[in-house]
Amino acid sequence: MNIASVGKALHILQCFEKADGDLGLSDIVAISGQDKSSVQRSTHTLHQLGYLEKNPQTKRYRLGKKVLDLTFQFLRANSLVESVNPLIIELCQKSGEKVSLSLFDDTTLVYVMRHQVKMEYYFSSLIGRRVPVYCTSGGRSILGRLQDAEVDDILARSTMLAHTSKTITDISVIKQEIELARKNRYAMTVEEISYGEIALGAAVLDSSGSPVAAIHVSGSLSDWTPQAYAEKFSPLLLETIYKINRR
Asked: What tens digit of pLDDT does each residue of 43-100 get?
């Protein structure tokens, strides 16, 4: 398989990123922008390799279980994820709240670990979810660790979408929140990604002092006011971050 073919095949897999269900060939053609014959070749190959599964009745495709093998291998081989896992579990137990680890990836964060002790809605418990840096507590804490020019570049390339009516999309206000994160060493968001959710986030640094990830602690507005939540859980979060960054 040549480079062009590999690119086309990967593009086919990306068609499923925001799909609500199975996709037919015509759907994949429309989403990918590739011609029908290319899509047929790529889907056939991906199906044979196990990266796509085909419904025998509808002939429509979904991602195959083989995709999970790649996720497992990524997490297994990631030394950061492995090393912080015990401390995240400890934070979850001490706080009684949901604790997550996300990795910094340009304008987004990717959740790779989520520990919870309460019942949560299904979507919020999944790993692999991408969220913007500009409207998340972990993202703003990471931006607070960057130079102003880097922050400006990331914000300029971010699509400012309102995930709820509380999402801040005004760049000048976002910068104020980033500056607050620099001062406090953590950021707080209230209902900016999900209604009813309070989240605290702090940046994880690599050996050079650059932000590479974030730890999030999140809870419910039905249980806490934002001020009380920050007062209760920010010391626990910062203690965990101190232990991680010291390593």
From this structure: 999 999 999 999 999 999 999 999 999 999 999 999 999 999 999 999 999 999 999 9
Helix axes 25-32, 3-14, angle to 10 degrees: 110
Which helix (H) or strand (E) segment holds residue 178: the answer is helix 171-184
Reported CATH class of domain 78-246: alpha beta
Query: How far is the C-alpha of 111 from the C-alpha of 37, rounded, in Å?
Result: 35
Q: What is the pTM of this model?
A: 0.87
Name, in order, each residue with C-beta under 8 angstroms of 144's C-beta and a sequence gap of 6 or more: 178, 179, 181, 182, 187, 203
CATH class of 3-67: mainly alpha
Identify the H or E element spanning 4.
helix 3-14
